[in-house]
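2024-03-11 09:14:02 INFO receiving multi-entity request
2024-03-11 09:14:02 INFO entity count = two
2024-03-11 09:14:03 INFO echoing inputs for audit
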Amino acid sequence: MALLEVKDLRTSFRTEDGIVKAVDGVTFSVEKGQTLGIVGESGSGKSVTCLTIMGLNSRKSAISSGEALWKGKDLLTAKPSELRGIRGDEMSMIFQDPMTSLNPVHTIGKQLVEAVQLHRDVTTRVAKARALELLKAVGIPKAEGRIDDYPHQFSGGMRQRVMIAMALINDPDLLIADEPTTALDVTTQAQILNLMKRLQEEFGSAIIMITHDLGVVAEVADDVVVMYAAEVVEHAKVSDLFNRPQHPYTWGLMGSLPRLEVDTDRLVQIPGQPPSLLRPPNGCRFHPRCPYVMNVCRTENPPLAASERDATHLQACHLDQETKDREGSKLVEATLAGAG
Amino acid sequence: MATAQEERQEMEVRGDELLVVDGVKKYFPITRGIIFQKAIAQVQAVDGVSFTLRKGETLGIVGESGCGKSTLARCIVRLLDSTEGRIMFEGRDITKLSRVAMRPIRREMTMIFQDPYASLNPRKRVGFIIGEPLEVHKLGTPAEVKTRVQELLEVVGLNPEHYNRFPHEFSGGQRQRIGVARALAVNPKLIVCDEPVSALDVSVQAQILNLLKDLQDDFGLTYVFIAHDLNVVRHISDRVMVMYLGQVSEVASRDQLYKEPKHPYTGALLSAVPIPNPELGRQRESIVLEGDVPSPVNPPSACRFHPRCPRFVEGHCDVEEPPLYPFGEGHVAKCHYPLERWPMTAAEMRRREATTREEPVQA
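2024-03-11 09:21:47 INFO inference complete, emitting structure
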C-alpha cells in the first residue's frame, strides 16, 4: 500500500467573484522513502493540493472532494482531532518563507519542545534533548548556545534549518516541503538541499517537494508531477520527464529556462498569461497558449493517460505520439547540444 | 588600485565608455541616541567598487543577498549619494552635481525595479505612470505625450488601448512591461535593471528577458543588469561582475567567467546552481560553502571571503588583502590562490597546485 494516495482531489474556494477551482482532479501517490516533485507556476494549484492534504485550508471558504488516503485512511473526512494527531507527527510540512513561519515571540527551543510534547508524553528535559539533537542534525553551529535564541537572531538559511528540524522532530513518514529554498540564495539553497537528501537517507521519510524550479526537481526528485491551471498535465519518472517530455507545456517550461550549460540566443517563450481559474478555458486549459493547438483541443479536455510508449509516463495531450516524440527529442537535443 | 587605474587608461584611449565607476563606497551609519545621534558603527554596503561600461554593453552583477548590488545600483543613478569615489557618466563626474544640474542627466539613465507590484503607483493610470517622466522633463504637449505613451505600450508588447487602466488590472509580467515602458519613455542611454525578473514565473521571465534583448538591439541601450540568478545573468550579459560583501570578487567576459572562473567564490556559486538535467545534475558534486555571509558592519579582515573559502591559507589570506589580479582580456579576480581549472570538485579545490600566476601590475 502506498503511504499517501491522492485520488481525484478537487478544491474550490468561494470568493466574491465566484468559485475558484484551485485544484481540479489531481491524482498521485507517494511510496515510502520516495521523493515526489510537484512543479508548476504560481497559481497552478501545487500549494493548495498539499494544504488540502494536510487539512490546512480555511473551513469557511474551501470545498474539497475526492480522496487523500493516508495509510488507507481518508484525510478529507477525518475529524479535526484525528488530523491534529497526524499533522506534525506522521506527516509534517516545511513552509516557503522561513521569515514568517516561526513565532517571533518564543525562543526556537520552546517552539521545538512544543512540537514534541504535542505528540509525545515526555518531560520537557527529554523534549529539549531531542530538540538539541535535531538542531545538531540540521547543522546549526553551536546548537547548545543557540537553542534559547529567538528567530530574529538567525539568518534566513538558519531559520529554514530550524523549520526543517521542527518538521523532522517526530520522525515523520512524509515531509511536505512547499518551496523550501525559494527565498534563499543559491549557496544556501545547495546547503539545504544537501541536508534534506542526507536526512532522507538517515530517517527514510518520503518527501513531496513543491517548487517552480525545474533545476531543483532534477536534482532531488524520483517522480515528477507537472501542474498547469489546477490540473496535472504530466506525471513521470524524473529521467523520463527530462529525456522524453511529452506535454507542450513541459516543453515550454524547459525551453524558457536560461541555462548555465547551454548557449541560447533567444529563450523559447510561452505566449500569454496563465488563465484565470474563475473562468478556465474550455477544452484543454493550455490550448490558448499552445503552439500545437488543434481543433479538438478547443472543445475536449484531454484526460491524463499513459503515453503509448511507456505505461508509467502519464500525460494529458491530444497530440499524436509521433509528434510528441519528435518535438520532445528536438527540445532535449537543443538543450543538450552545448552540455558536452 | 593598480589594475583599475590601468583599465581606466585603456578606456580613455578607446573613448567609448558610457559609465566609469571608480572606487565607489557607500557606508550607512548605525546611530545611537534620539536627539544627539552619534554614529557607533557603519554598514559597509559597498566598499570600493570600480568598473567601466562601454556603450551597447550589458554588465551583469551577481551576488548573494546583502552583497551590496542593489545599493551600488542606487548609487549609480544617484538615488543614493555615495560616501566616496567617482561616478563618471559620458566623461562627466556626476557624484557632486546638484539636483538641478543632475536633472538633464536623469533623462539619460533610468531604472527598472525588482518588484512590479510595489514600483507602480496603484492610484495612477498606466498612461500617467509611463507619461510622467516625459512631463517631468517637459518633453512634448499632452497630446504628444499620449501618442508617445501608446507607442511605448506597443513597443513593450501591451495593448495601447490599456492606456486608461490601473496597475492592479495587470498580471505580474505585464506590470513589469509597464516598468520597462516607463524606463524607456525618455530615450535613455543607460538602464539600470535591479533584479527585473526575480519576482516572475519562468515562462513570463523568458518573455521579459527576450523583450529586454530586443529593445537593446533596437535602441542601442546599455544595461547594468543585477540579479542573483546566475543562469539569467549568463543569458543576458556581455560581461559579468561577481560581488561579495560590498567588494568585487571577479570580473570577466561572460564566457570566461562561466568556463574558467578564477575566484573560489565564483566557483562555489556556479557549482550550487541546480541544473535542469537529472543525469548531469546528480553527477556533479556541488561545492557547499559553510556558514552564512558575514555582517557588513564588521567584515572579516583582508580577503573578506576567507572564513568560508575552501582554499584559505592561514597567515596570508587573513592578513594580506588580495588585489584584483589580472588573467588577461579584462578578466580580474581578487584571490591569492585562484582556481587552476574548472570544473573542480570540493576536494580538488582545497588542494592547491603550484600556480604560475602573473604578478599584479604595480602602479
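2024-03-11 09:21:48 INFO post-check: The two ends of chain B are 8 Å apart (CA to CA).
2024-03-11 09:21:48 INFO post-check: Chain B has one domain: 2-28+42-108+188-350.
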